[in-house]
């Protein structure tokens, strides 16, 4: 198993957000976390990336315990993350945003093993980003920012790529382009963990999905099973 | 044709060389057409520019406002004074050789404590540490000379090749020392240009813009801030090392918080969000203060008015303001 999250409990301040959450992602697999706003999807992702410490439970990545590792160590071990708000550095150009990833990955085993040109991987997923390299982050549109965020995470040569609401606020034609990109990433042998609020959208990409509600996993299975489950549909509709 | 804000930005050393060449030529020729006093003033300006350049790695590129850079400038100056008093050789290269490791170690130690915090807490910590160093310099008078300070005679330059004695010794020293400082200034500018345009420099800017985003990319925030602090403090310390032979005396005043304020002022005056801003700020501030002191006993008031005006009218500093003006003029033409 690539990623194993076992029975984690996470708090935001005094608020107990995640209650005994367990999920897993296998190699070459696309897994979706589906839930309404405030259900706990982003909290699960922040627990996995290390941005939010877990109070109890265990997180293992590539057979190594990473529960108490800081975010930068997790990133170096191959967890890439494209957050909901893109996370592009506004005053740096797209090339400079990608340059940081390439520089960081060159210091890792993954960088040493390859030719070091991890930007090529990023351009394979989104060739459009090549046209944007000289633009500053603050001069990009919302969709372009999301593309660059995914490209930048890909330039880290991750084993697992986490996408938080990657399709939110995009035009339908662009969403289609992003779904193609997810399939390209999967074909490259990279696993994906995708947080989505739209079950139908998640079902078109995911091999498996988890439905999150009030900080707990209330469903786990194939997308078709979720779509056929009345209880799941009621939970997601509110 | 309209200027394209998305046009590729050239950050090569060739671009820096092309931009610096005319200014450098002017600075090289300067001693042929100005008097000794003006050469001395420009030398002070270049030293202030080195200090501001170092300071700005922390403020402009890492997003940390230090109110305690006087500590590194003063430590550089006092190290030279101690070397003169205890070790003997009056060689500028020897001062630099001893002084740089001392300020680097001090910056590394103080930086290690300070970068554990950000924003106001960082500023207060740097201020507090500089005030501790100031108090030590003031109270340990048997070592530091207290408020009288320590004298530093004119050193020999280029490993004793240039000595300055005799009736025209002072004038010769000023001119030679000007070229000496100018050479070090050019090295510092090139070095800083390389640093801020390297992946390390871009990582600092990423941390400045958003440390959470930088963290999930794999950047060790505290380590990067510490290295930035170390480089910044060392460069400011180098400015202190260069300053004291020119001044001939170091007193605890250079360790006091108001001197840190002058370094901050220099960066603000030139503009801390661009590379050349602190250089321009350092030189302009030196002239501004010198002429303000000569003009009125209320010179602090004058500097205060300039600072308030600057913040209100030119928030991006002289260089930032000129860049905006240039962009508007180009837009107007097209």
Describe it.
The complex is a heterodimer of chains A (238) and B (334). Chain A is of the alpha/beta class and 238 residues long. Chain A has a domain at 1-69 and 195-238: P-loop containing nucleotide triphosphate hydrolases (Rossmann fold, 3-Layer(aba) Sandwich). In chain A, 37% of the residues lie in helices and 26% in strands. Chain A is built from 10 helices and 10 strands. In chain A, the strands form 2 sheets. Chain A has a 6-stranded mixed β-sheet, sandwiched between helices. In chain A, strands 2-1-4-5 form a 4-stranded antiparallel β-sheet, covered by helices on one side. The longest helix of chain A is centred in the C-terminal third of the chain and has 16 residues, at 172-187. Chain A is globular, with a radius of gyration of 17 Å. The model of chain A has no long low-confidence stretch (mean pLDDT 85). Chain B is mostly helical and 334 residues long. Chain B has a single domain (34-333), classed as ABC transporter involved in vitamin B12 uptake, BtuC (Orthogonal Bundle), CATH 1.10.3470. Helices cover 75% and strands 1% of the residues of chain B. Chain B has a two-stranded antiparallel sheet with strand order 1-2. In chain B, α3 (70-87) packs parallel to α5 (119-139) and α4 (92-114) crosses α5 (119-139). Chain B is globular. Residues 1-8 of chain B have low confidence and may be disordered. Chains A and B meet through α2 and α3 of A and α8 and α9 of B.
Q: Could you name the ranges of chain B where pLDDT drops below 50 across 5 or more consecutive residues?
A: 1-8
User: For the CA atoms, what is the radius of gyration of chain A?
Assistant: 17 Å
What's the story with the biggest beta sheet of chain B? 2 strands, antiparallel
Q: Count of helical segments of chain B?
A: 14
The CATH top-level class label of chain B: Mainly Alpha
Average the pLDDT over all residues of chain B and give the rounded result: 89
Low-confidence stretches of chain A: none
Count of β-strands of chain B = 2
Strand content of chain B: under 5%
- Quick one: overall form of chain A? globular
Q: Which architecture of the domain at 1-69 and 195-238 in chain A does the CATH hierarchy give at level 2? A: 3-Layer(aba) Sandwich
Strand content of chain A: 25-35%
* Count of discrete alpha- or pi-helical segments spanning 4 or more residues of chain A: 10
